[in-house]
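Most newcomers find our protein records easier to grasp once they have seen one. To make this concrete, we reproduce a full record directly below:

===
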Amino acid sequence: MAQIPISNPVSEAIDHLGGDKAVAKRAGLKTTWAVTKWRTKLPAERTIWLAKETGFIYTPHILNPVIYPNPKDGLPTKKKTRS
């Protein structure tokens, strides 16, 4: 299956969840400032969290391929077994 290129997967994941304000609220942040910065550089410690919040529609590999180079990296075991 061919992968569809995503221009900015982090921004798309944030938008998928309702935008900066909604993601900040989910993350327990007081302001949207940090989430706005994630659009250009997602902190490594937030990669799994963001993937999980999207139901792994956006995988850790898609969100941060440098840290998660294998497409199955960071996925829960039950997600790894699905093809």
